[in-house]
Amino acid sequence: ETAAIGSTVDIDISFDPNSSMATGSFVVDYDPTLLSPVAYTVGEGIEMASVMVNMNYTDPEDGLKKIKVSFISFDELNTGGSAVRFTFKINEGCTDGQVLPITVKNASIYDPMENPIAFTVYPGAVNAVSIMLGDTNGDGVVNVLDAFRVVRFDVGFLQLTEKQKTAADVDRNDVVDIFDAMKIQRFDIGLADSFN
Known about the structure:
196 residues; 3-stranded antiparallel beta sheet; elongated; 6-stranded mixed beta sheet; alpha+beta
């Protein structure tokens, strides 16, 4: 996942389908000096359980703020998929190209008979980039050329780097398309003073 410094990014914590999972808890580990949790949404993987999320959990191991999630169900949760989607703000102290690790630790998952379930945790990360939103060619100016580059990308005539795609996605919907080009064009001619 690539996101601009100062913007927000959604991170999913997901489970593979497991026919016997019923209850558990885990800690979402990240560097609170680089990322700030903003919001969360319970996903389809545990939506049928009683879910509690503490976005201000103090980790007793290092004293830093983390996120702790617990879920309880008397029935098996076998759908898999997203457990929780977190929205993080990438703090201004990040540097261009810095990798911000996000992982799950201290996880315990049990079946309805309180037997532990083995699982694998796959760490994730966010690549923080310093960009000017709308500036797809990195020349420090947002103009019609940037809109034209987005159109060319949308129809398959131009490849963009991840950093350029992040700059091009001005409506922040994770899709670079003609609607982004139109917003850049409106900005260029003064019909909009931001991309909100």
